[in-house]
């Protein structure tokens, strides 16, 4: 076996330039795979973490459906009179959960539930001087909101704990505050769809990293929002909760919808578009890497094929000396695998160095508070996959030429 390795090494060194090109092809393919998969999964994991950190595992709400029944349907059959109806108005329906607080108490007793946050949410107009902006105000229990969504970690100015004690206080999204040109301590007028107005004091600013949320969302206490909407203390529009096992959200959401008679949307359904987008991104990345490694494998195939044509006399002499067809096949497979091993190892180093260098590049912005550098994932499984993928590609690329070399008839070659 040692002799086979020596012969394979001699072949590779005799065509050093072609060997280097083949090694560089594998190196580039594996390095690109490591770099792309590290950047892609790092970014994907970051966006998923940001999204899930701001999303409940289950959201229970009253999904109001427009009443499509016409008053004409109420007309008695057989009556001989004409009915003319124009622009029938939908029935006035409130979006609240009729027994919301009772549901909250039942959910808090469920051992599968980590915590529950009742909310009152409404569209409002924010006014500061001449500026009027449409947004959302959500009444919350501050402690529950912090336990579920880490609200305190997202505060960039002011103090979250000042909200319960403040009279008509509000925590405002940083993007919304920037549009209104307000800061902590400023007072902002809000107007509800019914025309009610209230003057609120900004006690803190938050930033989640989600543009739409930061540009529209604000938080006040449950009592404050209920007062704005002129509703009683039992008025609840949303219940958001997190589970001890988030993977069971879909099954439990279906159970809650049947039990309470309201819409219960799990996090997988709510973020289906994000999940599909990430899946497409991964398919594209793997497709690009497979194409690169295919090109590298094709290069190895060509190099070994040319080497066989150039070394036909050597192969014939080896067979005449007693080397079997299996020995010849193993020689060229050793050459292919050697190119794969060297190229893959260099590729792993190249991929790690390029990924690490990218992770050091500053990526500061005013959108994502948690990101000051590009997120990169350094999972060991990526490097193992890259090594296996590189060796598999080069072995497959070298198999056909090695079989061809093993079938060479030494008598025909020596006779010329």
Automatic annotation (TrEMBL):
It is a multi-pass membrane protein. The keyword Transmembrane applies. Residues 288-410 form the ABC3 transporter permease C-terminal domain. The chain crosses the membrane at residues 20-39, 283-309, 330-360, 380-399. It is found in: Cell membrane. Belongs to the ABC-4 integral membrane protein family. LolC/E subfamily. GO terms for cellular component: plasma membrane protein complex. Keywords: Cell membrane, Lipoprotein, Membrane, Transmembrane, Transmembrane helix. This is Lipoprotein-releasing system permease protein. GO terms for biological process: lipoprotein localization to outer membrane. InterPro entries: ABC3_permease_C (IPR003838), Lipoprotein-release_system (IPR051447), MacB_PCD (IPR025857).
């Amino acid at each position: 076996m040692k002799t086979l390795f020596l012969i394979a090494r001699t072949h590779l060194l005799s065509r050093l330039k072609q060997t280097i090109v083949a090694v560089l092809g594998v190196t580039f393919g594996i390095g690109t795979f490591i770099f792309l998969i590290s950047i892609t999964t790092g970014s994907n994991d970051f966006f998923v973490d940001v999204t899930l950190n701001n999303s409940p595992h289950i959201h229970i709400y009253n999904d109001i459906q427009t009443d499509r029944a016409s008053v004409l349907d109420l007309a008695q059959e057989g009556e001989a009179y004409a009915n003319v109806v124009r622009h029938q108005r939908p029935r006035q329906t409130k979006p609240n959960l009729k027994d919301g607080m009772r549901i909250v108490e039942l959910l808090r007793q469920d051992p599968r539930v980590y915590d529950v946050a009742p909310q009152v949410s409404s569209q409002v107009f924010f006014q500061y001087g001449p500026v009027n902006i449409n947004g959302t105000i959500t009444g919350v229990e501050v402690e529950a909101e912090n336990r579920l969504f880490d609200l305190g970690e997202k505060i960039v100015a002011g103090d979250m704990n000042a909200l319960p004690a403040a009279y008509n206080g509000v925590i405002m999204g940083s993007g919304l505050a920037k549009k209104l040109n307000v800061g902590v301590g400023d007072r902002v007028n809000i107007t509800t769809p019914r025309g009610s107005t209230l003057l609120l004091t900004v006690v803190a600013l938050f930033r989640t990293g989600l543009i739409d949320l930061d540009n529209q969302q604000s938080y006040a206490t449950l009592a404050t929002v209920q007062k704005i909407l002129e509703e009683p203390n039992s008025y609840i529009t949303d219940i958001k909760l997190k589970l001890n096992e988030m993977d069971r959200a879909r099954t439990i959401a279906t159970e809650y919808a049947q039990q309470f008679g309201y819409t219960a949307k799990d996090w997988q359904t709510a973020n289906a578009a994000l999940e599909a987008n990430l899946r497409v991104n991964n398919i594209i990345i793997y497709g690009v890497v497979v194409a690169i490694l295919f090109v590298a494998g094709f290069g190895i195939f060509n190099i070994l094929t040319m080497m066989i044509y150039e070394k036909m006399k050597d192969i014939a002499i080896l067979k005449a000396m007693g080397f079997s067809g299996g020995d010849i096949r193993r020689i060229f497979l050793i050459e292919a695998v050697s190119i794969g091993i060297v190229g893959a190892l260099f590729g792993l180093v190249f991929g790690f160095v390029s990924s690490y260098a990218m992770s050091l590049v500053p990526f500061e912005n005013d959108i994502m508070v948690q990101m000051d550098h590009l997120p990169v994932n350094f999972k060991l499984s990526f490097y193992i996959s890259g090594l296996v993928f590189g060796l598999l590609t080069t072995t497959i690329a070298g198999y056909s030429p090695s079989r061809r070399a093993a079938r060479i008839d030494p008598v025909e070659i020596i006779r010329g």
